[in-house]
Give the backbone structure.
Amino acid sequence: MKIIEVETKRGDILCGCLYGEKYKETCVIITNGTCGSIFENKFLQVVGEELEKHKISFIYAHNSGAFHRIDTKTKSGKPSGCTYELFDNCLEDLQAYVDWAKESRFKHIILGGHSYGTNKVVYYLSKNQNEMIDKYILISPTDTGYLKEHEKLSADELMPIALKFKEENKLDELLPIAFDNWNLYTARAFLDFIENKHAKNLPIYSKNGNWKQLKTIKQTGLFVMGEKDGFAFGNTSNHLQTINANSKNKNNILAVIDSAGHTFRNREQELANTILNFVKESK
């Protein structure tokens, strides 16, 4: 595995993890979800290693929401990470990796994301319909407009604080309470996470989004999820079928990994095999 650096148009440097550098036929690019990283998401290490064995290149593409906070090289000089993330930056983040793959002369590019990263991939593909992406992968796709009860209680507690910070012109200051006892946000990043309509593009359960973005994507996709993923609320098959029913291309592959959760712990190889088969069929 090799670390690569890509630069976004706004001047931020993102680090990706490249497997199978010498294989130039197909490059699979998977971007992370909220706070995700190569260190936390072991399943994507397994995916990278499996694809490399079969002479397929793979990039785990850290976007600007990787990690909680990281002091990276940014044009603004400010730290990056989920704490500061703005969803729309995903367009530049993903474009930087796609441009890298094109400049590296890969013949085929498959673009994917995990969790919150799936919403980013859908948004990117809807905005870049002429980009040469062969197929796409949604791993553990989520409805970001639908909060679980404990998340909703946390959001209700934080919202008046964030709005007060906004009134006081303190949008870039950290909120005093972690969202869902897990992630500290700036007021700006929290409001973006809750209110950004572009991210609400897989409205399986919510009523505050729409399927317009997905309905523009012409490529075939792989939609894969763990049987016990809490974001499917007990019915993973229905979760994936709903996404497929609202896709422009109905020839998508749906896969449920038995006994797996949101990050496929102890089921990493099953996920890797599923992705490998999809990529091989794409050739």
